[in-house]
Amino acid sequence: MPTQPPTDGEPIKKESDVITPSLTYTPTLAPSETDEILRQLSKKEKETIAAKLVQTNNQCILPCLMGIKLHETTLDDAQALLAPSLGPGLVTRNEQTNEVVYNTTFETGNLILGGLSTHFSKGRADGINFQLGGLWRADVSMRAWTPYTLEGIFSQLGLPSRILFKYHGPPNEPSASEQGMIVSYYLYYESIDMIIAYNGQKTEDVPKFHFCPMQQKPEFIGISIGWYAKDIPIAGTDLQDASNYTVEDFFNLDWGNPDTCIDLDTAALKAQP
């Protein structure tokens, strides 16, 4: 079983989804004393700074994300944490409910695009949505993103409440025969209202899907905590219905070994919409 990695931070909290601005929302750029400095940096320098922050999760432990902690972090705190590395971001306010959303996006040298959204209510963060995209690329090593791999998640958060799978496809594209089917999987931590989604592992349409999560790259990883997780349906095929493993059995496998794999019953995956 993976061991707890050394960290300088405290345990943290999780999120996902995005608030839809209404006519009462007034977007404003978040102020940042470092904005001018960031503008003078080259694209590569900006990407290096962003990569250091994101790849280490800003030295904090999930469900803390990038230093943001549910029910503790204020908007000023979040801007002070993120603006020096990711830029000023965008603040959106709901004048009727006094809710605030702080959005920031980033690129790194080996990441197409990432994003972090934080929802604030009554002055404190109550939801976080984090996404990493472009992980499927050949030049991306998942070892660079250890906090967000299955091994990293288990070492930080422990045993999940459920592990679910969704079987998609074939995609409605001309190249569907080349792309095959797509398997996504989800870790659900009920006690902290957190959902981690690994979307889009391609496979042939075969009776057994050889699932090797430390080898197979997802299209993207999404983490939703608190406010952002509340409206996400917890649906799919449970691990124990598609394999010979319980959640605890699966958790206790050697995820430090990249060759750790299990077989999933494709028919069971297809049985769920």
Task: Give a description of the structure.
- With about 270 residues, the chain is α+β, with helices and mostly antiparallel strands.
- The chain has one domain (about 25-270).
- About 20% of the residues lie in helices and about 30% in strands.
- It has 8 helices and 12 strands.
- The protein has helices at about 35-40, 45-55, 75-85, 150-155, 175-180, 240, 245-250, 265-270, and strands spanning about 25-30, 90-95, 100-110, 110-120, 125-135, 160-170, 180-190, 195-205, 210, 220-225, 235-240, 260-265.
- Strands 1-2-3-4-5-10-8-7-6-11 form a 10-stranded antiparallel sheet. Strands 9-12 form a two-stranded antiparallel ribbon.
- A hairpin with a 4-residue loop joins strand 7 (about 180-190) and strand 8 (about 195-205).
- The protein is globular, with a radius of gyration of 19 Å.
- The two termini are about 30 Å apart.
- Residues about 1-30 and about 170-180 have low confidence and may be disordered.
Overview features:
273 residues, alpha+beta, ten-stranded antiparallel β-sheet, two-stranded antiparallel ribbon
Compute the average pLDDT. 80
Helix content: 10-25%
Beta-strand content bin: 25-35%
Distance between the termini: 32 Å
Radius of gyration: 19 Å
| Helix count from the secondary structure assignment | 8
| Strand tally | 12
Overall structural domain count = 1
What's the multimeric state?
Answer: single chain
> Strand order across the biggest sheet?
1-2-3-4-5-10-8-7-6-11
Give the structural class: alpha+beta
Query: Biggest sheet, in brief?
Result: 10 strands, antiparallel
Shape: globular
The secondary-structure element order is EHHHEEEEHEHEEEEEHHEH
Low-pLDDT stretches: 1-32, 171-178
Region (Disordered): 1-26
